[in-house]
Amino acid sequence: MRRWSTFILFSICFAVSFSLMSGCSSRTSGFDVNIKVDRIWDSEKHCAFTSLTEFDGRYYVAFREAGSHIFETDGTARGQIRVLQSRNGRKWKSVACLSKEGYDLRDPSLSVTPDGRLLVSMGGSVYVDKKLVGRDPMYSESRDGCSFSAPEPIEIVSDIATGEDWLWKIDWNGDTGYGVVYSSLEDTSDPDNKTIVFLVKTTDGIHYEDVAKIDVPGFPNEASVHFLSDGRMLMLLRQEKLDKQGIWGVSEPPYTDWKLNKIGFQLGGPNFIALNDSTIVAGSRSYLIPGSYKTMLLKGGLDGRFEQIAVLPSGGDTSYPGFLVVGDELWVSYYSSHATPKAAVYLARIPLASL
């Protein structure tokens, strides 16, 4: 594993240059953001789709580790979920590598349950001859942050689910956890509407039930949800067809009625954090330069209007950030293939004062 920091200078047209220095400064649309970035994990494997949390005084990053973005050289897909642990965010060690025979595990989501378990929610895909034939959401859990249970299926009791279901990221509001499921539609003549999305809830992170269907056309899928102090739920949703614009949503309890707005640009691996009840920092893959993908950070408000504030050192296969406030810093995990033969995992630290 190699650790490094880098310095970023880029203009409003999003040109980016890098040099090896101890600090970073990034200026876009009037923002001046200081960033320090470390590469915290690389290997001969493709490492992707990160999640970040704190549990019992230690920090955790989870991600998929496999031969490539999907398939191995023999045509199979058998991703594993690796979990890293750190006391200070600088030195990291692997505490788990989760796998399940016959499944490609990916898109892990770390969260802490109300009864004090570190929960790893993840997708489980089944491929035959490189064709996706099944999806089963999975979970693993740990009481001590060191020993993790073997991945087992999550149960979704739903009138909406199709059996081809993907539970993405989970967030907790008091004793209840929430997440968005996207389900594949088998019988559809419209190529632009192959999925439906709906909100589910849980009290244990294992058993889920419907809350509401969210009416979004255009192949909706990956979605992150988080909460404000007054209980309102926020959602950032990826849309892959039609105009491909990301969707921003706000809802009050019981989260059955949603105010949805298009944000004006495409998302890939979206996530966000509410720094307070009016300031949102989001992260996503940037598609602004065709064929030159980056991981970008954005700042916005509850109206769903976002401005880019930084481009992290990244390129190629990249994105899927995790967010965590640690002291006076915002930490951002993400992955990128810009500097290594296979995609590696990075951790950026940003002073809250610069946001």
Task: Tell me about this structure.
With 355 residues, this protein is mainly beta. The protein folds into two domains: 26-153 and 315-355, Neuraminidase; 154-267, Tachylectin-2, Chain A (5 Propeller), CATH 2.115.10. Helix content is 0%, strand content 55%. The chain contains no helices and 30 strands. It has strands spanning 7-10, 16-19, 25-28, 31-34, 36-41, 46-55, 58-66, 80-86, 93-98, 104-112, 118-128, 131-135, 138-142, 152-153, 155-157, 165-173, 176-184, 195-202, 207-214, 220-227, 233-239, 247-251, 258-262, 271-274, 280-286, 294-300, 306-312, 319-326, 329-336, 344-351. Strands 10, 11, 12, 13 and 14 form a five-stranded antiparallel β-sheet that branches. A five-stranded mixed β-sheet has the order 15-19-18-17-16, with no helix packed on it.
